[in-house]
Write a sequence for this structure.
């Protein structure tokens, strides 16, 4: 029975990962095709936020996704939730600008620098120190992205800066999202829904004043083809599905497995977009992309080792507390610290 359950779980994870890779690749291809014909990244972002807002509520209620254990105060909303919604909006807009200006493969290579931003921002915000292995793993990431940038045939400064800005914004989101999830006990999918809805309502006036006015003044709204409308709708639905599948994978696997699956997804997206969109690349360009992705794998392994070491250290008693150790039967007792709470001294 246990083996059958484990087999079902492995198959479920495998199917979800395959779906995740396919949906993510399709979303990137559709996004590139859409922005090539309709260069309005803010409008594309607003359509995606609308998809999250309209589809998530009914789906989550039907699926039985739990709400937060306690009401979130307005002060907490203003201090953390609103900045997170702002970050989500800006991260999506910058991500779309990067895909619009540079090839998808290059944009995803630049986004491989997320560990660099995570380490840097965690050090500043959380005062979190890393091991030497973690810092060393950043070297191939930076080197790979630098090589890919220097050899990129379709290089664009705006595209590079936008990709870096979106990566930094996503890193900030990850750091603060963990705090919100821990503080409120809200389900991660509910948090996605809240952030999407809040970002939509907050930036609807900005979109009306900026993009919509531009679209009307340039008479673009009268010349939007049914193909562009279809791509907008498809991009919104695919983006929503990608978020749902990614969060589903995250909820059933370990952090290391998710990180490796995410890095593997990036390789899959780069390969698929190179094949379908056919942007020109050199051998050195591919080497830079590969080196950056290898660096991401090394970073994930180094972070996993760091977490395991920290966990083991927290379970072991400090020398100052071990004043009296005496053998009692088949187990040791350390000042009332018994095997029933921490099973480390069984013999």
């Amino acid at each position: 029975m246990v083996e059958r359950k484990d087999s079902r779980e492995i198959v479920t994870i495998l199917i979800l990962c395959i779906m995740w890779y396919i949906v993510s690749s399709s979303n990137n291809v559709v996004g590139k095709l859409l922005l090539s014909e309709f260069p309005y990244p803010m409008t594309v972002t607003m359509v995606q936020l609308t998809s999250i807002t309209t589809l998530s509520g009914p789906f989550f209620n039907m699926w039985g996704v739990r709400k937060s254990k306690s009401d979130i105060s307005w002060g907490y909303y203003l201090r953390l939730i609103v900045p997170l919604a702002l970050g989500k909006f800006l991260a999506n807009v910058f991500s779309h600008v990067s895909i619009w200006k540079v090839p998808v493969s290059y944009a995803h290579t630049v986004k491989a620098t997320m560990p660099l931003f995570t380490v840097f921002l965690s050090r500043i915000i959380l005062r979190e120190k890393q091991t030497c292995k973690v810092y060393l793993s950043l070297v191939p990431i930076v080197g790979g992205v630098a090589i890919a940038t220097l050899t990129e045939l379709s290089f664009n400064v705006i595209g590079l800066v936008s990709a870096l800005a979106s990566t930094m914004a996503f890193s900030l989101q990850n750091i603060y999202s963990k705090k919100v999830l821990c503080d409120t006990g809200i389900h991660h999918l509910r948090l996605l829904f809240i952030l999407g809805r809040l970002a939509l309502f907050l930036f609807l006036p900005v979109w009306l004043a900026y993009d919509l006015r531009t679209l009307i003044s340039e008479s673009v709204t009268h010349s939007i083809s049914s193909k562009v409308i279809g791509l907008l709708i498809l991009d919104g639905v695919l983006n929503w599905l990608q978020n749902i599948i990614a969060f589903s994978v995250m909820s059933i696997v370990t952090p290391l497995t998710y990180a490796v699956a995410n890095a593997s997804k990036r390789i899959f997206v780069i390969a698929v977009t190179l094949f379908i969109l056919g942007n020109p690349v050199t051998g050195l360009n591919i080497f830079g992309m590969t080196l950056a992705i290898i660096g991401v794998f090394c970073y994930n392994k180094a972070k996993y080792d760091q977490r395991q070491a920290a966990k083991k250290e927290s379970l072991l008693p400090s020398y100052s507390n071990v004043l009296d150790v005496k053998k009692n039967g088949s187990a040791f007792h350390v000042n009332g610290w018994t095997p029933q709470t921490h099973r480390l001294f069984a013999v």
